[in-house]
Amino acid sequence: MFDLEQAIAEWRREMLAAGPETPAVLDELESHLRDGIARRMEAGSSAEQAFEAAAQELGSAKVLKAEFAKAQGPDAAEIRRWAGFVYAAFLVVYSLLQTRTLLRFRPTHEEFWLGMAGVAATLIAAYAGWRLVPRFMNLMANKNARLWVGITGTVSLGVGWPEIYARFVLERFDFTPGQFAAAFVWAMLPCITSMTLLLGVDRSGGGRQTSSVKTG
Amino acid sequence: MIRKELVAASAEPLILSLLAKGESYGYAIIQEIKARSQNRMEWTDGMLYPVLHRLERKGQIKSHWAEAESGRKRKYYSLKQDGKKALKEHHEHWAVVHAVLTGLRKEQYV
Lengths: 216, 110
Known about the structure:
The complex is a heterodimer. Helix content of chain A is 80%, strand content 0%.
């Protein structure tokens, strides 16, 4: 038995996963979908036929995402592209500098690879942060709240964490130079990744609609 | 069927023109365009909302959620002062294009 509400909920999940990222936009698209369904059902279609036709008319998640990307205009798209490019370039330079610093401390084979694993983990975490932070930010409707979270998160992790590390972690261990260099690479992971919080504020498109769309 | 590029270029002035008649929502806007063009302008449903959001960002239209007669919530759009100015400009620009095209067409038959 076809369940219209379940089909719409599933459509919404698919859209959220692969289509326009903001729930506020989805609320509006869902409203449109329901209008299309209602019109077709009034004309005599079954709920299933009406849903299929209305969803097809609205477009796939991929198509909708492309349409929204086009309409964001060259300015916003360009800023995002440049932010991504600058951050990627920064990560490349950072990785090279960390590798050079690591080698200067004449680490053992194990210490060197432990340090390189730290560089790799930092790059993976930075990529994950770049991809996921905008989605997290979209859960907050208020733009100022998103900015506040971005700034405090970046500052606390970028500045606060090195302070804690230097005062409370380093003092407890008697590192060899090679161990110190490898541990330093790992210690920098939260600092480098925290930048994605601030970069994610700009890339999030808006907040969640407080009231979701009702069934018609 | 009218070419895709022309449909895209005329989307903003058409939406502004429809909203100049009074507030409306996405589904109704699409239906009216389809009806007025006798389905010769192929507007995809997904294309409309990015354009509406862009016009809103530009400050030419505004929106609000309201409950429809069916009890469902809908997002309604209406024209702002900047939208009226933009619409006037669109009319002027399209009039120029139309005049040039008409003039050239007449010359072909001289």
